[in-house]
Amino acid sequence: MYPDDQTLCQVNASVVRLGVVEGEYHWHKHDHDDEFFYVVEGKLLIDLERRTVELLPRQGFVVSKGVLHRTRAPQRTVMLMVENSGIVPTGDVQS
């Protein structure tokens, strides 16, 4: 989670968070939880171990549990994240 993320609501055991971001987050993974990213405005890059996924407005992507990843926003980007309400935002393992 970026420092300025804001939880909008809880849906069952998940939360919907709004992030307005620029820059990069550290490499991490979540051993027990998937994460969903949806770009509203801007561009989000999700680096995985073997590839990078580029998301533009109205595009989304699920990072499966256990996958090492980091997010990067080369410009101001507005995104929604859906994740388990108990997720550790910094990840279970950091590199």
Question: Quick gist of this model?
Answer:
By secondary structure, the chain is mainly β. It has strands at residues 6-11, 14-24, 28-29, 35-41, 44-48, 52-55, 60-63, 69-84, 93-94. The protein starts with 5 loop residues before the first strand and ends with a strand.
Lay out the secondary structure.
Blueprint lengths: L5 E6 L2 E11 L3 E2 L5 E7 L2 E5 L3 E4 L4 E4 L5 E16 L8 E2 L1
Antiparallel strand pairs: 1-2, 2-8, 3-9, 4-7, 4-8, 5-6, 5-8
CATH class: Mainly Beta
Low-pLDDT windows of residues: none
What is the general shape?
globular
Oligomer status: single chain
Distance between the termini: 16 Å
Secondary structure category? mainly beta
Q: Characterize the main sheet.
A: 7 strands, antiparallel
Per CATH, the superfamily is Jelly Rolls
User: What is the element string, with H for helices and E for strands?
Assistant: EEEEEEEEE
The CATH architecture can be named as Sandwich
CATH topology: the name is: Jelly Rolls
The Cα radius of gyration reads: 12 Å
User: How many structural domains does the protein architecture include?
Assistant: 1
Helix content: under 10%
Tally of contiguous helical segments = 0
Mean pLDDT: 88
Beta-strand proportion: over 45%
The number of strands is 9
